[in-house]
Design a protein that fits this description.
CATH architecture of chain B: 3-Layer(aba) Sandwich
Helix content of chain B: 25-40%
Oligomer: heterodimer
Distance between the termini of chain A: 64 Å
Helix content of chain A: over 70%
Shape of chain B: elongated
CATH class of chain B: Alpha Beta
Order of helices and strands of chain B: HEHHEEHEEHEEEEHEEHH
Structural class of chain B: alpha+beta
Number of helices of chain B: 8
Radius of gyration of chain A: 24 Å
Strand content of chain A: under 5%
Strand order of the largest sheet of chain A: 1-2-3
CATH topology of chain B: Protein Transport Mog1p, Chain A
Distance between the termini of chain B: 62 Å
Number of strands of chain B: 11
Largest interface: A-B, 36 and 30 residues
Largest sheet of chain B: 9 strands, antiparallel
Chain lengths: 291, 229
Amino acid sequence: MMRTRLDDLIRITMRPAWPLFTLLIVLMYIPTYVKLGRTVWQSEEGSYGPLILLATLFVAWRARSRLTEVTTASACVAGVLLFAAGLLCCVVGRSQAIIELDAGSQIPVIAGGVLILGGWPSLRAMLFPVLYLFFCIPLPGVLVVTMTEALKVLASSAAEQSLWSIGYPVARTGVVLLVGPYQLLVADACSGLNSLISLAALGLLYLNLVGKRGRVRQILMIAALVPIALAANVVRIDALALITFYLGDEAGQGFLHETAGLVVFAVALALFLALDRLLACAWRPRFKEVT
Amino acid sequence: MMERALLRSTLMCVCLVAATALGTVLKPHMVVAAKSASIDLQQLVPTSFAGWKAVRTESAGATEDVQAEIDKIYAQVLDRTYIDAEGQRVMLSIAYGRDQENGSQLHRPEFCYEAQGFQVSGARDGTMTTGYGEIPVRHMIATRRERIEPVTYWITVGERATLPGIGRKLAQLSYGLSGEVPDGMVVRVSSIDSDSAADAYQLHERFVHDLMNALSAPGRVRLTGGAGI
C-alpha cells in the first residue's frame, strides 16, 4: 500500500519533467544562440539560422504528444553516454570559444537527455527535430573551403558545357568563364553551397511536415535534393552568363544577380514539390477492377 | 523504480546546470602577453644583417579599410623590405597580437591578400630549415595583374610555431584548457618573382636562415615560437 502511495507522489512530482527539461536546455543554450546571432547569423552564409531554429522548435512542439511518460522508460546507458559526451563538448566549446563544438553539443545533450527521461520511444519521437539542429551548427571553415572549391569547379564546368551545347561561344580556364568578350569569375558565393544547404533544410522540413510517404518514396525525395540544387545553380550561372552576354557586365553584376539567385531557388523548390506530386501518382494504389 | 526515475532526472538537471557554469568558469583569462616581457618588433628585428639591408619603400599599399582592420587586430606590425648585395629583394612582414580571442584572432595571409584584390593559388605546406631547427611554413602565390608574389609564412601561438587550421586550433586549445590566453604572430616573407616560385621559396629560406642567425636568443624564441628552436 505504502509503495503505491509513494509511487503516486513521485509520479505527480515528475509530471513537469519534460517542460522543466526543455526550459533548462533553452536556458543553457541561450548564450550559444546569442553568439551565433552576433556572428554567423549576420553573415550571408548563415542568415538562414534563425529560421532553422524556429522550424526545429515548431517540429518539436508538434511531436510533443508522442513523448512517453517519464517514469516508464529507461535507456540509461546509451542516454548517459550521449549526455555526458554532449556536456563535455559543450563545456570545452563554450570555454574555448569553439562555436561549432558549442552549437553541436546540443544534439548529443538533448538526445541523451531525452533517452534518460523517456527512453527510445521518446527519442524516436524527437529524432527529427534533434537531428534538424545539425543545420544550426556553423560548418567548420576547412569543410566549407573544400566543398566550395569542389562545387565551384563542378558548377563552372557544367555551365561551360551547357552553354556550349546550345551554341554559345564559351570557354573556361579553371573557374573563370569566357563568354564572348566577357570574363566571368565563378566566385565562392556562386558555388551553390548555400542554396544546397537551404534547399536540403527546406526539403527535409517539408517531408517531415507532410508526413506519411513510405520509406522508398522518402529516400527518393531526399536523394533528389542534391542533384536538383546543383542543377539549379548551374542554371543560375548560365542565366548570369547570358545576361552578361546580351546586356553587358553591369547588368550581370547588378540587381539581376540577386534576382536570378532567388528565382532559381524558387524554381528548384518547385521542382522538388513537382517530384513529390509525380511520385504520388506513381504510388497511388491502382483501382481494382470490380466485376 | 519510481525513486530511481526521480533521482535520474534530478541528477540530469544538476549536470545541465553544472556544465553551463563550468563552460563559463573555465574560460581562459590569463593573458600570457601580460606577464612576459613586452616586445618591440622594430627593435627586435635588425635592419641589417648578413648582407641584407632594410631599404625605405613606399607603403605596401594596404587600402584604408584593410589598414583599419589591421590596426584593430594587431598590437604591433612591422613591414620592411630588405635587399642583399646581389639586389634581391625580400619583403618581411610581422604582425603581433597580444591575445588570440575570437575578435582579435590573427588573420591568415590568404585572406589579407584576397581582401586587397590578389588571387591566391598554389598553397602548400612545407618546412623551412634554419640553423636552429625546422619551422612549419605555408607557401602560396599571390597574383594581382602583372604582380606575382610568392609568399612563405608561418604563425605562432604562444610559444609554438604552427599553421592556420587544425594545428592552430589545437595549440590554442592546449593553452586555453590550462586557462591561458596566448599571444601570437604572423611572420610573412615574400618577394616579387614571376619566373619561378621554387627559386623564390629558396630565397625566402635563405633570408629566414640569415635572420635567425642575426636575432638574439629571446628574439628567435618570439619569432619562431621557440619550441625546439
